[in-house]
Amino acid sequence: MNATNAFLWPIRVYYEDTDAGGIVYYANYLKFLERARTEWLRSLGIEQDTWLAHRIGFVVRQVQMDLLRPARFNDELRVTVVVERLKRASVEFSQQVLDNENNVLCQAQIRAACVNLGEVGSAVRAVPMPTEIIEVLKRAS
């Protein structure tokens, strides 16, 4: 991961994020990663609801996640976003969840595909990203 161009998003661990032992439940790391990608897009001026109105969205197609250390209730974390590869209809990210001492708690590789959502009830299919989005992502990479 290239830390020099990493987007950082702060997250605090809430009680609802943890299991009975006060440790973050593994599936909630996916929520942390998703929130950071959404805020990264917003910081670039890409509002997903604007594109959803045009029936264009992004769906996660592949996740590879490695949980290295536990996060606990009330921890303050930072989630990184780095574009690793930009393709015509998809984007691949490296992401990490870090604690306040820069220990990597979770690392993940995410591939998201651009899709045409079509009409409600119709098939969702991959499509090339709109030029406006590709240009913004190229500048941010």
UniProtKB/TrEMBL annotation:
Gene3D superfamilies referenced in this protein's UniProt entry, alphabetically: Hotdog Thioesterase (3.10.129.10)
Annotated InterPro entries: 4-hydroxybenzoyl-CoA_TE (IPR050563), HotDog_dom_sf (IPR029069), Tol-Pal_acyl-CoA_thioesterase (IPR014166), YbgC/YbaW (IPR006684)
Family: Belongs to the 4-hydroxybenzoyl-CoA thioesterase family.
UniProt keywords, alphabetically: Hydrolase
Gene Ontology molecular functions: fatty acyl-CoA hydrolase activity
Top-level taxon of the source organism: Bacteria
Name this polypeptide is given: Acyl-CoA thioesterase
The keyword Cytoplasm belongs to this UniProt entry's keyword annotation: no
